Structure prediction request, 381 residues.
Amino acid sequence: MKTFKLDTVIHYGDNALGRLSEIPYKRVLIITDPFIAKGPMISMITAPLKKGGIEYDIFFDVVPDAPIEKIIVGVKKFLEYEPEAVIAVGGGSAIDSSKSIREFAFKANPYGEVGLIAIPTTSGTGSEVTSFAVVNDTKAQIKYPLVSDSLTADEAILDAELVKSVPPSITADTGMDVFTHALEAYVSSEHNEFASALAEKAIEICGVFLLRAYLDGSDTHARQKMHVASCLAGISFNSASLGITHSMAHQLGAQFHIPHGRANAMLLPLIIEFNSDIHTSSKSKKEYDPVVKRYATVAHTLGLSSYNKIMSVRSLVNWVQFMLKEMKIPQHISEIGTITVDQYMSKVSVMADAALADACTVTNPRVPTKEDIMKLYQKLW
Ligand SMILES: NC(=O)c1ccc[n+]([C@@H]2O[C@H](COP(=O)([O-])OP(=O)(O)OC[C@H]3O[C@@H](n4cnc5c(N)ncnc54)[C@H](O)[C@@H]3O)[C@@H](O)[C@H]2O)c1
Ligand SMILES: [Fe+2]
Prediction:
């Protein structure tokens, strides 16, 4: 038996934030980052709360990649304030921090049910609908996903007004995270019809609207589409899970602070080649591996017409490389300029161990060895 479930109620479209004046809570803790807390965006959250007569406090100590130290600070704040619900506002870092804070605080002092409303301000992680929370153990230099149904938000609010201020480089990184979620879910060993349908739609939207949103952040239509695509891809991978692009990207984030979506985008061409084994099976065949067929379908969804399945997979790799160039994402670590070859190579073995142990590796369509992963990291240099 298989099960597909969606535990989060999604509010979206014009004035979606109006939902905040109607929520069934009287005392909420907003968890966000300093950029949002100190800028004009926070009033878009607090105004409807005031209208609904809902008391709130704000914890704005979130930093990128949800380090455990900051989660502990957030747990203390949570336990002092004892909110009825948490309102997570921000990118994946703020939403994942909120999920972990609520989870750990509840374990420390289970004073009753505490709701979670997730409001993404980037179109990227899909964290508003997933049971994943990525945390960063800065001492061990490992980033890993916590996975539990209890992490899932009760409600998600998708209001594209909040993403208009996202600068082009973050639009590029987070947009490629959306694409990677959809693609990894689509070829995952746990792929299924429900997850694949959502992934196909997210892929189609990325193909048409990601560059548009990158080139013109005020393009409301493109922003709305990418915001929905992010959520669709989130629901998709919440069901089918991900693959080694994510496992390996987590370690690049933990060791070298490469933004999550950027790390995925840089790895993606190498991982598509590895999973489809394109170098050794590059001749036309009567029957192709299932993963080759699925990558070829993705190429067709993007409108990349091709002569045969292998050519389709190649055109998919080319498309990703084209997107990287158009959106000024480096193709190799050496292009970043702040990481030396010795620094990078000295971490390859430890990153490979952590990537192999990452929860996303088990659903990769091709089972990798440590040597495979080390080679992929080396090629990325
Ligand atoms: N839980 C999941 O299912 C899941 C899935 C994928 C990734 N992640 C995790 O999410 C994190 C990445 O999240 P992210 O890519 O959204 O980035 P992020 O949350 O780290 O934010 C990146 C930057 O964008 C800024 N920002 C956010 N919203 C903005 C806005 N509207 N205007 C201008 N700037 C804005 C933030 O202040 C920050 O500086 C990583 O830790 C990653 O591992 C989680
Ligand atoms: Fe991701």
The chain has two domains: 9-163, 168-380. The chain has a mean pLDDT of 95.
